[in-house]
Amino acid sequence: MKRAVKNTLRGYLFASPWIAGFVVLGLYPVVMSLYYSLCQYDVLRIPQFVGLRNYRELLFQDHYFYTAVWNTLFYTFIRSPLVIAGSLILALIVSKAVRGVKFFRTIYFIPSIISGVILSVLWLWLLNPEYGFINSALQFFGLPGPLWLIDPHWSKPAIILMSVWSLGGGRMLVFLAAIQNVPAHYYEAVEMDGGGWWAKFRNVTLPFISPVLFLWFILEVIFSLQVFVEAYVMTKGGPLNSTLFYNLYLYNKAFDDFDMGYASALAWLLFIIAGIITFIQFRVSNKWVYYSGGAEK
Amino acid sequence: MRSKLNKTVIGLIFGLLVVYLFLPSQKARERQVVRYWFVAGVKEDIPPCVPWFNAAQESIHVEGIAIPWNEHEKKVLTAILSGDPPDVVNLVTPVPKWAARKALVRLDSILVQDRLDTAQFFPSLWQEMKYRGHTYALPAYTGAFALFYNKRMLREAGLNPDQPPATWEDVHAYARKLLRRENGKISRMGFIPQYGNIETPLIIAFERGMQFVSERGDRVTLQSQPLIEALRWERDFFDLYSVDEVSAFMGGFGYGNQHGFIAEKVALFINDNSFIDQIEKYNPGLEYGVAMIPSPDDAPSVSAAGSWWLAIPRGAKNKRAAWTFMKYVVSHPVQLREAMSREETLFPVNRRAAHDPAFLALHPFMHIFSEQMEQTRSKSVTPLVHDIFWREFSLARERSLRGVMTPQRALAEAERSIQFSLQRALEYDHYVNARMKTEDFFD
After folding, report:
1. pTM
2. What would be the CATH architecture of the domain defined by A63-285?
3. ipTM reported for the complex, 2 dp
4. Which residues lie below 8 Å from residue B338, measured CB to CB, with a gap of 6+?
5. What topology does CATH give the domain B145-305+381-428?
6. In this complex, do A46 and B436 lie within 8 Å of one another by their Cβ atoms?
7. Kind of pairing, strands B347-348 and B138-142?
8. Where are the domains positioned within chain B?
């Protein structure tokens, strides 16, 4: 008994660097941000407790809040399916055992290691309406190029377009691993029944990799809800607030206006929004996710 | 035995190293050290006034540290929170924005004690050093704005190249004559109100004497005739072309020789005195002139100004030495010497330096900037909600320009939004003031 206690203590002792780090750098800020979300607070001065006022003002008086939510949801729900479908197609292509496939896997992975700021600066040029590559290419095919980031109708699609850059990367690798794990005899069974590539994909590949797809849908939605760098570097939220994404608005409130209480409240509302979307995804998941070992709870 | 000896030797060396690292340097032991943080401009070089100051006296040693422009506010803020801030900071975001947050030490008492001559500064710059009647900083450097005009383009459009537009109506008329199209696309323009660092409608409102905040500072006004008319004036440019057309045209502009004015794509442009150097560097053959900023028919020309300023952050250790250095930097001889020696041409805040014949001799246009500096107003119109004001003001302009809203409606929306934030800020300010003291120089 005594020995067991000693062992437990030892275990905690060994885990203590992590525990200390988590409490100081993780838990403490989280708890404090919850407290500050109930305050007026500008960091340099003492906080003033105001109860739920920040939340009330955000939900009922602040029209930028809804602009930011709309922009972010638009971005999330258009981008997430697109990049997942795109990455899946890429993974399917590089899953073929042909010569030189490893080379292409590497090539498709490389863009994902470039930092967001550099990408944004690069895309600022690609999307330049006068001199950019994209409009030059469109012009070559006789298509009129939009003004992209300068036009409030095209600014969000332009930022979504940037995501093609990250189609490869981690997502593709995970899909690839999942595809390669599908047992070959299922494909043989489809072939015997006379099914083609679509039947194989639809009835074998897709169900088998559906848990992985599900995981990525959840992660992708959470990543997309946090979109920030592109708008911060390229548009600062403009034109006409069309790229005022949630985290950009939060950043403006926190670090331009030093309204930390309000910004904390924004952060907690985003947490709730992400929680609701994830919850819905889980509820819908049992309609389309297949676990080969039986349903997992 | 041997390993023990080794350990002793290593220990000894290590110990000496530690002692050496923590030992104050030769200079520091004799002199009081003042840590001076300045926001780095194009270069990270220590401003020349620092070595001059260190050489000029024996008791204080200033240690200049460049902090990068990005995130500089956060850096200074964290330093103040840590309780170990630098002794002097050189920043550019409005003083009231910092003073309102009790980040700076009040200078009133030392100003009186030292009988510092405050008339040596340009009045609008000096005004900006204050918040609610108290002074928190000294202006250090500024940029003076004026109108640049391209003589060759004026001549080619059939206009008198020696007669730049004097009123805002003239600017309209000039712009019409200067507009050129090639293959259905704009190839040359007279004036683009939204191009550049200065907000033309704000200037026009200043010239008409508009006040943005009530006397008591609790009520913000944007929907007033001068500003509505200024936005209308700006909107009137767009009956000849669409916003998209102009945006596409401006999409080709960049820095250096890609700049719209330097590349001779735009004929009229308001910019600061350092633009002279840019022109000399990238297009030395450019035939141009500089004139006072236009004004309405019945009102004098006014420019907007802000300055880089020096202040002592709350909690600084060497206030007295810091103050000595600050006074040195803003004095007439140092301002003059620095303006004449720096590669980035910053304009002196000291009007005696700015009107000094030696300074005016730097460039034939310099006297225009000095003259314009006498007629400036601060851009810090709503200190408590400074950034919100500017975000809302830009949005209102954009809405009016794109025709999404009428100028009146756009300004009404902005006003409502700023007032909402101002109310919040005031309530918090009131709460804090009852519980927290602002540090005084002699505390």
Report:
1. 0.87
2. Orthogonal Bundle (1.10)
3. 0.83
4. B47, B48, B49, B329, B346, B348
5. D-Maltodextrin-Binding Protein; domain 2 (3.40.190)
6. yes
7. antiparallel
8. 26-143+306-378, 145-305+381-428
